[in-house]
Amino acid sequence: MSRWGMAIDLSKCVGCQACSAACSMENTRLPGENWHKVIFMNEGEGGTKKFTWYPRPCQHCTDAPCTKVCPVRATWKRKEDGVVLINWYKCLGCRYCVLACPYGVRCYPETKPLLEPDLREVYHGHRRAKLWDPPYQLSREEQDGKRGTGIPPKGVVTKCTFCAHRTDRKEMAPDRDPVKDRDFTPACVIACPAAARYFGDIDNPESEVSKRVQRKGAYRLREELGTKPQVFYVK
Prior knowledge:
The protein is α+β, with helices and mostly antiparallel strands. The protein has a single domain, classed as Alpha-Beta Plaits (2-Layer Sandwich), CATH 3.30.70.20. The protein is 17% helix and 15% strand. The strands form three sheets. It has a three-stranded mixed beta sheet. Strands 2-3 form a two-stranded antiparallel sheet. The longest helix is centred in the first third of the chain and has 9 residues, at 18-26. It is globular and about 50 Å long.
């Protein structure tokens, strides 16, 4: 079995937000429903202050707090690859998981965007079902409420899935090449113009992502919490 993980090289990342745009388009997200954000900030004080940024997808924690607070076990972690997913058929929309997540990566689409229009009101769709039905959504085969991919029903929480609909297409070698295997790789990895992202089996020491993680300077966000994210940052 593989344990999917991601390494983001901050020395290469230019903060262009191509990853955020690719994520939104690939997963048919609404304006304001950002599964992947690039957080901009000023670090340091006085003359040492510098402008920097952090890409922030779901961290897919090994010890995920969101899975512990869900009263109906709608948030779950797959044993075969360690990816944290949401079963929309079970989700109550209570948003306990939103509060429990220390990384702020979960979304509740029913919250109205402040600036952008609600695309569900602009394009109503054509299906008899009450779901939003835009023309650029995932194929019917790739939409799966049990793993939280596709168009969600009303009143549920959504989040980054490591593009589970792509990685699940078929079994591949643990070390994925974002060019050769682009149909099976998360959209944010493919879209990065600086090639700052690496995706693969972090338990395989020979995979490119593991080699990046093992290099000096690799770390995880808020490691003091003991969540053990499967997303690593390389300085």
